[in-house]
């Protein structure tokens, strides 16, 4: 699957000229299918880059629940870390962080975080 190059999404001049809804809808369609962990990582990396720009934050809320599902199933640490950074940016940069938090609660992100913390403690013992 060709995906969307992160350099295009990250560059301000390019990202402002791309039709944002089309780009994000395309990414959501790809993200919602069964894809490899590497493509999951690349898409979430693009989302993370976009989440620094408040203009994209409302549309990025559509990715909270699908990414929560991926977080529950993720085996690769880099996928887990980039999803958590994406969430942090949404909570920090979104004009209504409460909406982002509600979607994360609905997606049961707190359960996944609890399991990650528990796993981390087990590995240290």
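Sequence proposed for the structure above (125 residues):
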């Amino acid at each position: 699957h060709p995906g969307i190059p992160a350099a295009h999404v990250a560059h301000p001049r390019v990202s402002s000229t791309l039709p944002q809804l089309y780009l994000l809808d395309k990414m959501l369609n790809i993200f919602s299918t069964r894809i490899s962990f590497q493509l999951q990582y690349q898409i979430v990396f693009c989302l993370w880059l976009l989440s620094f720009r408040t203009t994209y934050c409302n549309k990025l809320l559509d990715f909270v629940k699908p990414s929560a599902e991926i977080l529950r199933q993720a085996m690769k640490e880099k996928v887990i870390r980039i999803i958590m950074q994406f969430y942090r940016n949404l909570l920090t940069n979104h004009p209504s962080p409460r909406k982002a938090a509600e979607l994360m609660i609905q997606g049961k992100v707190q359960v996944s975080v609890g399991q990650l913390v528990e796993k981390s403690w087990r590995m240290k013992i």
